[in-house]
Structure formats: structure tokens, C-alpha cells
Amino acid sequence: MNLLISNDDGIFAPGVRALANTFAEAGHRVTVVCPDRERSATGHGLTLHQPIRADEVEGVFHPAVTAWSCSGTPADCVKFALYAVLDQRPDFVLSGINHGANLGTDVLYSGTVSAAMEGLIEDIPSIAFSLASFAAHNFQPAANFAQILVQHLAQHPLPHTTLLSVNIPPVEEADIAGVCLTRQGLRRYIETFEERFDPRGKRYYWLAGEVAKEIEQPEHLHLSTGIPTDVHAIQDNYITITPLHYNLTDVAGFHALREAPWFSTALHPKRTE
Length: 273
Prior knowledge:
By secondary structure, the protein is of the alpha/beta class. Helices cover 26% and strands 26% of the residues. It is built from seven helices and 13 strands. Helix 2 packs parallel to helix 3 (111-121). The radius of gyration is 21 Å and the shape is globular. The model has no long low-confidence stretch (mean pLDDT 90).
């Protein structure tokens, strides 16, 4: 298979090296295009007001891997790869393995998920992989599972182009409880801005949020609350697979507005001749 791999932790991050090398050793054609430095929590930002610089990188990955370092965001990296590096469209866009979880509303900020989302926008099956701990450093169980999952999806494609957000618990392979199909959870953070002063006495602030708790949600469209969230399942050492899409239309909100008596009268006044 022809695989494009990116991330938001940067070209020298151990997670992307484990992912790319595992696929290269299995005989796949692997191209890596990653930010030249950590670009975590950049969301789906693009570089529009300054040039993007990129260089090939040697001696970091498996010899069969073609690797590029890019000054842009994770989404920039995927765009650059698709239109300036690759000579054919990849079969999959893979992002990660992120050092830290991407659970619940994390996916809205995540550069890892955004890189995969860029692949989805281009109608390419895409997967974001995250190791659910900043303290853990063994990415191989996640890389091994990535290879198994991609092989199954290649042989049994999903009916619609989909982005899968996959979180792997930070435990040994033998201690993984299984694989769980999940819905996206909702995590609230306690946001704090720590006030500091630089050596010249000028004030600045450092965002230091921490997870408060997961918020219980009502039934999500056609998905029952009986289906576990990614936040809950990862706590039980399950690998979580959450299908995502860029279409953020709120179907319930749409129907509520359409059926509201005030909507047609207040916002659509009759024309005067």
C-alpha cells in the first residue's frame, strides 16, 4: 500500500518513527511529512501569510521511508504532501502516533486529528492514532495495532470515506482489554491562566488547563447512551475507535429550529409590495 503519514509532535517524535518504520518493515511504501517542530493543539490551522519551507530528512526513519520536514501546521503538511511531494494519491492518510490522548472534545483542538481530517476532506480514508498518556514511551503496541487495522480496512473498505480516531491505552500489549467502537465523549477542563513576568518585567500568561470530568451527554442522534464513550472505554484499557466526520451539522438543532413557531414569522417577514 501507498501510505502518507503525518503528526503534530514533529518530525523527530518517537511516535511517528514507530508508526512509519513498522509499515515500512512490512513492505509498504511510506512517505512521512511532518512539522519541523511540535505543533500540538493547532487544530486545523493553515499557513496563508508566510511561506512554507520544507526539506527532505535522512537518517531518522527506516531506509525505505521518504521523509520531509515542513514548517507548516499538520494540515499544511498533508496538503503539501498531496500536491507537492507524492506522485500518486495514497491509499490511507495516517496521523500519529500522538504522544497523549485525543479523547472527547480534544479532537477539536488536536493537530493529530486535523492532519487526518485533511485526508478525509480529500476523500482519502484516514486514521489518527494516539497513545493515551504523556508519561508512556512504548509506541510499539499502538504501531502494531495500526498495522492490523489498516490491513483489515484495505481488505474490507468502509462504505463511506471516514476518519477514525484511535486511542491506545498506555499498557503492555498483553494487558489491552480489547477493541471498543465508541462515540465521542465530552470532557470539560478547568482553564487557568498563570500570570508570569519576563526578564524585562513584561507580563505574560501561560494557559494551564486540566481535565475536570467527563460530562454525561443525552442520546446522540442515532447512537444510544448505552454505547460507551472514548473517555470511558480507554479507562478500562480498551483500544477505542471513534468514527468522525467534518460535517458538524447538528441534526437535532436543525429540526428544532425548523419546527419552532417563531422561526418562520420572526426571521421571514412577509414582503411588502
